[in-house]
Amino acid sequence: MKNFCFIIALLFSISSNVIAQKVSLVNPSLDKANKYYDAGLYKEAIAEYSKTIYIEPSFMQAYNNRGLAKLEVNDFTGALADFNKVIGKEPKNAEAYRNRATLKIRKQDYAGALSDYDKAVALGANDADAYFNRGIAKVYLNQQKDAIADFDKSITMKPDAIDSYIERGFAKMNLRDNKGALADFSEAVKLDPKLANAYYGRGYSQLMLNNKTAACTDLQKAAQMGSREARELQTKSCK
Questions:
Q1: What is one term from the GO cellular component aspect held by the record (predicted)?
Q2: How many CB atoms lie within 10 A of CB 209?
Q3: pLDDT at position 29, please?
């Protein structure tokens, strides 16, 4: 019995040493990959994440991060494979569902994106960005009221979420709530007076409310900032 216990202890010691060696190799590789990613060197990041995975194939965070890097270089097939790998091994990984949803938005698979965002939110990814992105998917699926509800949540969690005000404004315009849209675009302009989209949206909603002078002022400003849509609407409506 003593010999048996000694063998067990020895095996445990060897196993612990192997794990420690892997961790000591994985951490520097992962840190290097993350630095490449943060610097925008996505191909280098992919190579380093692959090295991390070679050292420790069960390290799902490396697959997840590599998927994000592949997404940045438009390798949709590779990114999807990495996100699927994580979800297959960790079906409650909210981050992986959210990342796969982002990929599906890029591929214009809005129904698939919405399904993944729903899972991500249900699993705990209930921050402002998750609700904003789910709202975007709903807009593309013409679920304007539900999209507005998600933008509402995003703004409640992050009151200075400019993009949420702008997208909520456009969703309200789609529902012909021009007064509500005007309020959202005005708030966006207040938060950042350098966004052409905010002036364009405000100009459009002003036009729908028959405030032509104010509308044309906003459309002109948006056009000067480079908005092609604003320039076309200005040419058509501000004579």
A1: cell outer membrane
A2: 14
A3: 81
Prediction pTM value:
0.82
Q: Do residues 200 and 222 touch, judged by C-beta distance below 8 A? A: yes
Q: CA separation (Å) from 35 to 28, 45, 48? A: 11, 8, 10
Q: How far apart are CA 144 and CA 195, in angstroms?
A: 23
Do residues 82 and 64 make contact, with C-beta atoms less than 8 angstroms apart?
A: yes
> Chain-centre distance of CA 157, in angstroms?
16
Report the alpha-carbon distance of residue 188 to residue 155 in Å, rounded.
12
Residues 6+ apart with CB under 8 A from 67: 78, 79, 80, 81, 82, 83, 86, 99, 103
Report the percentage of the chain scoring pLDDT > 70.
89
CATH topology of domain 160-238: 1.25.40
Dist. CA 174–CA 190, nearest whole Å: 22
For the chain, the structural domain boundaries read: 160-238
Helical ranges in 73-127 per DSSP H: 76-89, 94-106, 110-122
How many C-beta atoms lie closer than 10 Å to residue 86's C-beta? 23
**DSSP result, 8-66:** HHHHHHHHHHHHHHHHHHHHHHHHHHHHHHHTT-HHHHHHHHHHHHHH-TT-HHHHHHH
Q: Is the pLDDT of residue 237 over 50?
A: yes
Token pair for 101 = 């949803």
pLDDT band at residue 26 under the 50/70/90 scheme: low
